[in-house]
Design brief:
Elements lengths: L1 H10 L8 H8 L1 E4 L21 H7 L3 E4 L17 H16 L3 E5 L4 H5 L1 H18 L7 E4 L10 H16 L7 E3 L2 H4 L15 E7 L3 H4 L8 H4 L10 H21 L3 E6 L7 H17 L3 E4 L9 E2 L4 E2 L1 H7 L5
Parallel strand pairs: 1-2, 1-8, 2-3, 3-4, 4-5, 5-6, 6-7, 7-8
Antiparallel strand pairs: 9-10
Helix pairs in contact: 6-7, 11-12, 12-13
């Protein structure tokens, strides 16, 4: 009997290591829960997360919610940068709702504008935030993915950003040695900035980019856009050969970079603001989603129920053209 047990033990395969490409594939089609927890205070931007949001997201066919969080507004300014206990409980609740509805989560640090403006001063605090976030959620399933920082820009670019990634990742790896972690290039996670990104030797990284081109279409009339875009209206996206070619060229650049560096890709944000006509928004959204899928990118639409929203919270129903652009089989 002992001999049999030894033989079985020797024959048993080792514990499988996570396949980051499989994790990224499982993210599939997602939606951002934007304008809520990344506001200075939830509700400031007219959006609070409700339990009733999660079932229709799952039922529609989405696999993932990306949860943007402004952790920096809920943590002490000085070491050890303690995150507010009640705010942590609020994020716990979001993760619990996602889990109950069998949705993956991409949990990020969003709108840490002070780090973009003064990275030397704020990197230790960002590291401290991640030490706490990672430790709190270390026992969550692999369906919870961490994203180190949304859209680094300002002074947190080039070497500053590349030098920041290793200590941030180290903070996560203390308690989450194999969890999938999302990292994007500087300059607002722009596609063109991918060649500027240098990643540590870590097998469990997913690369993210954001796509809002053409910007004068996707952000026309948005109050926070540059003046020349804010005053625009009536800009259409017809899906012409030239328009589609520009989209494909951008995504081919991403796919080529990803293949060269052996990294999976998560298109973390794309969307067109409500000022654009709905038909153009639907055409553009469908084109972006299909071109991303054709290259094996997972994706998350920006966003669920605010200014870019695919869901009408007042009517408690999806905006059908946008939902079908994202998930063609949706009923």
């Amino acid at each position: 009997m002992m001999t049999c047990l030894v033989a079985l033990a020797l024959a048993a395969p080792p514990d499988p290591k996570p396949d980051v490409f499989a994790v990224n594939k499982s993210l599939g089609r997602g939606v951002n829960l934007g304008n809520a927890l990344e506001a200075p205070k939830e509700g400031d931007w007219g959006m609070k997360l409700e339990a009733e949001f999660f079932p229709p997201i799952k039922k529609a066919g989405f696999a993932t919610v990306r949860v943007p969080v402004k952790w920096s507004a809920h943590a002490a300014a000085d070491a050890p940068y303690t995150i507010d206990a009640e705010f942590f409980k609020r994020v716990d609740w979001v993760l619990d709702q996602a889990d109950a509805n069998k949705l993956n989560v991409v949990l990020d640090v969003h709108h840490y504008s002070e780090a973009d403006a003064d990275p030397d001063k704020h990197l230790p605090r960002l590291v401290g935030l991640w030490e706490q976030i990672a430790a709190r959620y270390k026992d969550r399933p692999p369906s919870v993915v961490f994203e180190l920082l949304n859209e680094p820009h300002g002074k947190l670019v080039d070497a500053k950003w590349n030098d920041a990634v290793p200590p941030l990742l180290k903070a996560v790896r203390k308690t989450n040695p194999t969890r999938a972690v999302v990292v994007g290039p500087p300059f607002w996670n722009a596609v063109w900035a991918l060649p500027k990104l240098t990643l540590p030797d870590d097998p469990n990284l997913i690369v993210t980019v954001h796509h809002y081109e053409p910007f004068k279409f996707t952000h026309q009339g948005a109050s926070w856009a540059p003046e020349d875009v804010k005053k625009l209206s009536g800009v259409k996206w017809e899906g012409t050969d030239a328009e589609v070619a520009a989209l494909r060229k951008a995504f081919d650049q991403v796919a080529d970079w990803a293949k060269k560096h052996n990294r999976p890709v998560f298109l973390g944000e794309f969307g067109a603001y409500q000022t654009a006509d709905l038909d153009s928004r639907a055409r553009w959204t469908a084109a972006v989603a299909r071109e991303a899928e054709a290259r094996g990118f997972s994706w998350a639409y920006w966003e669920f129920g605010a200014g870019f929203g695919a869901y009408d919270r007042s009517a408690k129903k999806w905006r059908d053209p946008l939902l079908k652009a994202l998930i063609p089989a949706a009923k």
